[in-house]
Amino acid sequence: MSCYLCRAEPRARYMGYYCEKCKRIQDTIAIYGDRVYEVVENVLMRTPDKQEHKIKDEIKKEIETKEHNLRSKKKGHIKRGKEVELTE
Ligand SMILES: [Zn+2]
Description:
Blueprint: H1 20-32, H2 34-44, H3 48-87
The structure holds zinc ion.
């Protein structure tokens, strides 16, 4: 019996619907939710040259967000440190 999603690979388990690869996709969707569909739409459904540009763009956005979060956390630590010093 073939997988319900890709319809190419055999199902991983007799009672299951998906193959090993598609089960992994299912797990990824469970973790990242709509982000998976966004990446597929925005990155894969493009011509190769546009894909390259989009991949860089998407990665850049994620790196900027992570850097911002790191900066915010560091600021929080410094503030807390100062507050501790003032109260002592
Ligand atoms: Zn499959």
